[in-house]
Amino acid sequence: MSEVQQSSKGGVALSRDALSPDVQLIGSREIEVTFLGTNAYGQPTWIMWNASEPYLIGMLSQGKMGYHFEQRTSSGVLLHENISLSRVQRALGG
Description:
By secondary structure, this protein is mainly β.
């Protein structure tokens, strides 16, 4: 596993190295982000895991108008559609 990464502006830096997990510091949380490749719609897709405990946080895909983020919560799945990457970061608590 690689060390913690952030973009130069302190935001999320999404890798496109297939199946190579990167640990991102988002707010005070370390989140493992793994690029899966493209989905059935041809959209780049990532999966996010808690880096310290093995549980799924959500799945992120890049659409034409923004990102689609399916976030796992204690009350079920939240679907955020056509949002910016900074909004994804805020949804993750960063």
